Amino acid sequence: MKNLLVESLYPSWGQAYQPDDVLFESQTGHQHLVIFKNQQWGTVMMLDGVVQTTEKDEFIYHEMMTHVPMFSHGQAKRVLIIGGGDGGILREVLKHPTVEHVTQVEIDQAVIDMCVQYLPNHSAGAFDDPRVNIVIDDGVDFVSECVEQFDVIISDSTDPIGPGESLFTSKFYQGVQSCLAENGVFVAQNGVSFMQLDEVTTTQQRLKPCFNDVTFYAAAVPTYVGGIMTFAWASQNPEIRQIDVEALATITEQAGFKTRYYNAAVHAASFALPQYVIDAIGELS
Ligand code: AG3
């Protein structure tokens, strides 16, 4: 293998890709964006040297970030997506027949444009859906000033370095709290827990003052190397995540669309956390 593209996330260890063809590369004004082809993973998108998404394994992340909060809520009509410029979350959200309106706030127009062009199956036409309103803005500013309320809010951010950093702050979580409807659910990508355990404890500490129920759920996403990725979960109503597997199975069946990773049993099991994560966040409520 030659001319490898090495992920720069961790200082002394990482993953490397052989780019067969670099489709796009530029400094967008917000971050460094590169999209390339790789034999194993298909088309890959990196921001500031960190793998964001690949054609081959994107479904795991996008289904778990979307269907866990959406099916737990059960009747989400209004959804807010922060980040997610590749359109993968939007595509999954729109599969839910309950959805009437989606607002997506992405800071970087270039990510949307280049992903529509080079990763078209991520959005699969979702940006053209009449239920969707795209806002190019900073996520923290948007939630701080927003007067609307949403049933589900999904934060599909980069790691807390560069433009993604503000999406892990108390200010952002306070904004999310203020625009989450009654019985609403907030979820956020929260890093690979074995490698980024401080992210789990920091998020827990910052979410706790704003929400009655704060926890994490997990899934292993192959190209987010280092073990399981944790997703933060926050809501004011602890009952929302107590939904049992059978009830979930009925709801998912009624929704009438197919998934490739998500199912009711995976949903329920994803809230089981390894002991080192439980110990790090203290007693779970
Ligand atoms: N955003 C999350 C990428 C996180 C990578 N971090 C890591 N491996 N620790 C993905 C955007 C997909 N829509």
What is the gist of this entry?
The protein has 285 residues and is an alpha/beta fold. 31% of the residues lie in helices and 29% in strands.
Largest sheet: 7 strands, mixed
Strand residue content: 25-35%
Q: Name the bound molecules.
A: 1-{4-[(3-aminopropyl)amino]butyl}guanidine
- Tertiary shape: globular
Helical content band: 25-40%
Helix and strand element order:
EEEEEEHEHEHHEHEHEHEEHHH
- Please state the average pLDDT score: 96
Which blocks of ≥5 consecutive residues have pLDDT under 50?
none
Radius of gyration: 18 Å
Strand line-up across the major sheet: 9-8-7-10-11-13-12
Give me the number of helical elements.
10
Could you walk me through the main structural features you see in this protein, from its secondary elements to its overall organization?
There is one protein chain. The model has no long low-confidence stretch (mean pLDDT 96). The protein has helices spanning 58-73, 88-93, 109-118, 120-123, 139-145, 170-178, 197-207, 245-255, 264-269, 275-281, and strands spanning 5-6, 16-17, 21-27, 32-38, 42-47, 50-54, 78-83, 101-106, 132-136, 150-156, 180-192, 213-220, 228-235. The protein is globular. It has 285 residues and is an alpha/beta fold. Helix 2 (88-93) links the parallel strand 7 and strand 8 (101-106). The termini are far apart. Helix 5 (139-145) crosses helix 6. The strands form three sheets. Strands 9-8-7-10-11-13-12 form a seven-stranded mixed β-sheet. It has a four-stranded antiparallel β-sheet with strand order 3-4-5-6, with helices on one face. The protein contains ten helices and 13 strands. The structure holds 1-{4-[(3-aminopropyl)amino]butyl}guanidine. Residues 9, 50, 52-53, 61, 84, 86, 88, 156, 158-159, 189, 191-192, 224 line the site of 1-{4-[(3-aminopropyl)amino]butyl}guanidine.
